[in-house]
Amino acid sequence: MLELLTIQQMNKENTIFNLTFIPTNMVSAWKRTSLSSNFCALILSHIENKSLENTFSTLFNELLELCVKFGENKDSPYNLAFNKSKKESEITLKLYLKPTQVKQLKVLINASSKKNFIENINEKFFTTEFAELGVSVYNFTQLFNGKINLHDKPYKGNLETEIQLTINKETL
């Protein structure tokens, strides 16, 4: 699954890298999601606080699995980018989803931003396509005080979707 890794900058002040991949074969791509996410987290752990390696690895893994499991237009390039500055870290994922999936993802992101998300969540929510992502999104927004933005535009009958995750450095 790891097609191309471009490291644009890597030092104590800024780290910028892009992982571009085409998840054409689900079985082989699935096997490599954890390896790819661990590798990306390892790059960051040399620059970042070592204790954050597991956090970043889990986050990258959830995003890569989202692409492999639910992505459409799997012959098109997907992209996972990371940009760390002194003040914040930003992770951006570009993938392709069905319009109904994007709608469901927007509902999940909106619900996870509410303080009583876990208390008011119902069983039906966790049987949806993005059940595993639900807990990760909740942890990201609540525990790390992260922000999530979602943008989409039409692409070959589906939606090219961009998910931006921003974490304030002081929270980490």
Provide the fold topology.
Layout lengths: L3 E7 L4 E7 L4 H22 L5 H18 L7 E7 L3 E10 L1 H14 L4 H4 L10 H13 L3 E9 L2 E11 L4
Antiparallel strand pairs: 1-2, 2-3, 3-4, 4-6, 5-6
Helix pairs in contact: 1-2, 2-5
Characterize this entry briefly.
The protein is α+β, with helices and mostly antiparallel strands.
CATH top level label of the domain at 4-98 and 145-168: Alpha Beta
Helical content (DSSP H or I, runs of 4+): 40-55%
Helix vs. strand class: alpha+beta
Level-2 CATH architecture of the domain at 4-98 and 145-168: 2-Layer Sandwich
Low-confidence stretches: none
- Classified in CATH, the superfamily of the domain at 4-98 and 145-168 is Histidine kinase-like ATPase, C-terminal domain
Describe the largest sheet: 6 strands, antiparallel
CATH topology of the domain at 4-98 and 145-168: Heat Shock Protein 90
Rg, please? Answer: 16 Å
- Following the backbone from N to C, one meets helices and strands in this order, namely EEHHEEHHHEE
How far do the termini sit from each other? 29 Å
* Proportion of beta-strand residues: 25-35%
Shape, principal axes of CA atoms? globular
Count of discrete alpha- or pi-helical segments spanning 4 or more residues: 5
Mean residue pLDDT = 76
Q: Care to count the β-strands? A: 6
Widest sheet: strand order?
Answer: 1-2-3-4-6-5
Structure description:
With 172 residues, the protein is an alpha+beta fold. The protein has a domain of 119 residues: Heat Shock Protein 90 (2-Layer Sandwich). Helices cover 41% and strands 30% of the residues. It has five helices and six strands; from the N terminus they run ββααββαααββ. Strands 1-2-3-4-6-5 form a six-stranded antiparallel sheet. Strand 1 and strand 2 form a beta hairpin. The radius of gyration is 16 Å and the shape is globular. The mean pLDDT is 76.
